[in-house]
Amino acid sequence: MHIHAYEKLWLACSVLLILFLIGTVTYGAVGPGVAMVADSEQPIDAQNLDESERFADPGVEQVGENEYAAYVVARQFSFQPDPIVVPADSTVTFYVTSADVIHGFEVVGTNANTMVIPGEISTLTVETDEPQEYGLICNEYCGAAHHAMEGKVNVVS
Ligand code: CUA
């Protein structure tokens, strides 16, 4: 009789463990994983960027005395605009979105680096100093020509 009781206990434990594991996997898939895109604004329709006021013709605009907003579209396999021209000694906020798949946005040699997700707007603020030409690369695999997806960020006086 004792043996039977133990078997039931172990069976119950096994079932609980399985439910716990399923719960962990499910929660992990829909829970914290999605929270990574904390630096984005309101979602945007990736299929209709042409109808977006800010991304139909993306570019750099002055928004304050020394502040600029740079709107950038990443798509297979380029960045628009290219080059992205921003003034020296200023604060520049990049607003980056994708027209198709997930891309990366990394200004080479700096810590300016973000993932770019269709339907989301990644924002990133930098301080520019001296005039300099920077490379811009995609660091998320996005298709056959991922390795060739690059642009320029030109800091000008
Ligand atoms: Cu775009 Cu890799």
TrEMBL record:
Question: Which molecular function terms from Gene Ontology are attached?
Answer: metal ion binding
Q: Which keywords are on file for this protein?
A: Copper, Metal-binding
The record, for CDD domains, names: ba3_CcO_II_C (cd13913)
For the keyword Metal-binding, the answer is yes
Keyword Transmembrane helix present in the record's keywords: the answer is: no
Domain Cytochrome oxidase subunit II copper A binding: start-end pairs: 65-157
Q: Which domain of life is it from?
A: Archaea
Q: Where does it reside? A: Cell envelope
Under InterPro entries, the record lists: Ba3_CcO_II_C, CcO_II-like_C, Copper_CuA, Cupredoxin, NosZ/Cyto_c_oxidase_sub2
Q: What is this protein's name?
A: Cytochrome c oxidase subunit II
